[in-house]
Design brief:
Elements: H1 15-73, H2 80-98, H3 104-114, E1 119-127, E2 132-139, H4 142-154, E3 158-169, E4 183-192
Antiparallel strand pairs: 1-2, 2-4, 3-4
Length: about 200
């Protein structure tokens, strides 16, 4: 006689879910392991690049020190204070080179046409930075000084006349042969723009 077979599963009802979770964890573990190996390899490459760059920096600093020592032996001052002043000096040199075409002959000719007869010039100092000229001298009277200022203002190449100082002076013993009376000593600044 045949007996009926009884099939009874002894596994827990969520075993398939647990088995799927195990496979997911195995895959995640393998992925993390591969990621860790890649990070380790990549960090070693970065460290090798950093070491090469550090060596290059040390080499450059050594070359810089050699250059500074050689420059000092040749008499050049490369101190930080000196290096700070270099741009100003270069700028000044550039301005001077751009004004090499400054014609003293033309300037003196322009000045002669603007200056009245009773004016004596003591010094003429150009300042190329602001295209100005400082004139010092003497005038017989205040009226002559006024004529000088007006003559400079009316001249096409001079403008912005600023009378810095003026003072009535008595002639010194040496000057008494050429000057018998008081005179006006002055200093003025004028902008010069030749066309």
């Amino acid at each position: 006689m045949l007996r009926p077979r009884l099939h009874c599963s002894l596994t827990a009802p969520g075993i398939r879910l647990v088995s799927g979770a195990q496979w997911i964890l195995v895959l995640a573990s393998v992925s993390f392991f591969i990621l860790a190996v890649w990070v380790l390899w990549h960090s070693q490459r970065i460290e090798a690049k950093i070491l090469k760059r550090e060596e290059a920096v040390v080499h450059a600093q050594g070359m810089n020190q050699q250059y500074l020592q050689q420059a000092r032996l040749e008499g050049f001052d490369l101190s930080p204070q000196r290096i700070e002043t270099l741009p100003q000096e270069i700028s000044f040199a550039n301005r001077i080179s751009s004004h090499q075409a400054f014609s003293w002959t033309r300037f003196l000719s322009d000045l002669e046409t603007a200056v009245p007869l009773n004016i004596s010039m003591k010094s003429v100092v150009p300042n190329f930075r602001d295209a100005s000229i400082v004139l010092t001298g003497s005038a017989d009277t205040l009226g002559d000084l006024t004529d000088l200022v007006e003559g400079l203002e009316e001249h096409p190449t001079f403008n912005h006349v600023i009378l810095s100082s003026h003072k009535i002076k008595k002639p010194k013993e040496k000057e008494q042969k050429t000057r018998q009376r008081d005179y006006v000593a002055f200093s003025l600044k004028v902008t010069y723009n030749p066309t």
